[in-house]
Design goal:
alpha/beta; Immunoglobulin-like; Rossmann fold; Cyclophilin; 3 domains; about 30% strand; elongated; binds flavin mononucleotide
Amino acid sequence: MKKRLIFILVFVSVLAGLFIWLPSGVPTNAAVRISAKTLHMAKGQNYKLKLKNAKSSKKAVWSSSDSTVASVKKGKVTAKKEGSAIITAKYGKKNYECTVTVSGGTKDTLIIYFSATGTTEDAAEKIQKIIGADMIRLQPLKAYTSEDLKYSNDECRANKEQAADAKPSITTVIKNLDQYKTIYLGYPIWWGKEPGVIRTFLSKYSMEGKILMPFCTSGSSGISGSMQHIRDMAEGATVKAGKDLTRSSEKDIEEWIGKEIGTADNSDKKDEKTETDMRMKIGNTEVTVKWEENESVAALREMAKTGPVTISMSMYGGFEQVGPIGKSLPRNDVQTSTSAGDIVLYSGDKMVIFYGSNSWSYTRLGKITGMDGSQMKDLLSGGDVTVVIEN
Ligand SMILES: Cc1cc2nc3c(=O)[nH]c(=O)nc-3n(C[C@H](O)[C@H](O)[C@H](O)COP(=O)(O)O)c2cc1C
């Protein structure tokens, strides 16, 4: 009887313990963090910063490095005048900081960018030097380590995020986006497209009514593979022709800005330079190609100057036509996910044209434009074809 009573007591106390623990729902090991590490505001705006996962956040002591720029009371930040200040929440023995930037409210152009290793940041700074706009660097909640970016490893964080079209959390809060009419949006190309931080940004902030100027840096792929996603995500925006600024001089950037801004809606223009000098025929059908600007295409163009380049292609894998170019071209292979219309260099001396998709290490040569996936399939999946490229 006594044993039974002890058992019931133990059982009840375990259950009670569970009920006390479960509703809290907060994993005991979740780290305390501040809700924004960078905060962008206009004069007069307020924003409530919070200490996430803190058991008794009321105990935090808030202070500002410059209350004339941004003051803080119990986490509520008030933007006072142009400049920047660091808001600190002291909680226990630790300090949690947020850098607040208050804009003067005079500029209507903003440069927003994400950069993992600094190349896109350099490009953003070049633009800023030319147009003098406000500038914001998007900060991921979890910074990317060099291991995270090791794209030769399928399992690295960046690769997994790209494969899943993930939207990793960001810790940048922008309160004054309404102020800006034109937004330059910059990012590195990851696996042919925009990185997840950009997807997160575009899913959190509306671009309705804004003029968007996408720019990127890349190893060689260029910006074209990201443009359709950007157009789809930036609903209601006028998306201008994007540009890869990796090797652009200040003069190139000025030219791009001059061409795109100051013109009316030209959102359906081709991105970057459209080469019209090299023509391609698949069987009897002349197709329009937007050629890449790289050394492989330059070599192909040289070949075509001496006479038509004829490539006998064969169907392969249910998604592509492949054939020998007759010469090795310079190659800069990167792991690439292809889609219908993509033209790539494979193994240095073969051209592949896709009517489906594949993932392999290629050098991009160009993209057939003005045809959708089913038209590409009709053109390429009915049997072997001959491709002729000429100047
Ligand atoms: C995960 C990952 C994937 C990448 N994929 C491509 C790619 O598909 N094509 C390309 O040309 N460069 C690719 N790159 C190279 C970057 O686009 C290039 O180095 C860029 O300039 C880096 O910009 P950042 O320094 O601002 O981060 C990739 C880099 C990483 C880390």
